[in-house]
Specification:
Layout lengths: L10 H11 L4 H23 L10 H32 L6 H12 L3 H21 L2 H4 L6 H32 L1
Helix pairs in contact: 2-3, 2-7, 3-4, 3-7, 4-7, 5-7
């Protein structure tokens, strides 16, 4: 009987696996995601007419881009740290390789349903903030629907990783105790 996984990997695991499979260093992948987020935020202002095309906005737009990579970088760090720790420990207990591989899977793989639940929750929270607080988007000074859609899409993508990184951090701590 083949080694069965206890649950399917999440979309975030597939995304992180894809990032790791790119033929460039992972730090460059993260830097490119940051750059794409900053360009997207600026594009929203350019499309809206709030900034002349090509002009750089406030430092807030540069800082907002950081949110798009913090969760990704943290999850990558957690997974690499867990893998390295298990690799170091595995030489001490070679007879337990099957158990260690299961532990590696659990420590580096977020269950798909958990990731889906957090993703839906964050989409609902951002949507609720927009719906119930009209000033939520007004603080960005945008009125063009395309600009608003860009800001909401990139912002939601960024915010989705926050509960996932907290969940995975706590999950790893629980698994090693």
């Amino acid at each position: 009987m083949p080694n069965q996984k206890p649950y399917a990997p999440s979309w975030t695991n597939h995304f992180l696996d894809w990032l790791n499979s790119l033929p460039i260093p992972i730090w460059l992948s993260i830097a490119l995601i940051y750059l794409l987020a900053v360009i997207a935020f600026h594009s929203a202002y350019w499309i809206d007419g709030a900034l002349p095309f090509g002009a750089l906005g406030s430092a807030e737009l540069l800082v907002n881009g950081v949110w798009s990579i913090i969760g990704i970088a943290f999850l990558l760090f957690l997974n690499r740290s867990a893998t390295a720790a298990i690799d170091k420990f595995s030489v001490l207990v070679p007879q337990r390789m099957k158990d260690l591989e299961m532990l590696r899977y659990q420590m580096t793989t977020i269950p798909s349903r958990v990731a889906l639940a957090f993703t839906v929750l964050m989409i609902l929270l951002v949507g609720g903030a927009v719906y119930f607080d009209p000033t939520f988007l007004g603080s960005y000074g945008l009125s063009n629907p395309i600009s608003i859609a860009i800001m909401l899409s990139v912002g939601t993508f960024s915010y989705v990783f926050a509960p996932l990184m907290i969940y995975q951090g706590i999950r790893q701590l629980v698994l090693v105790t």
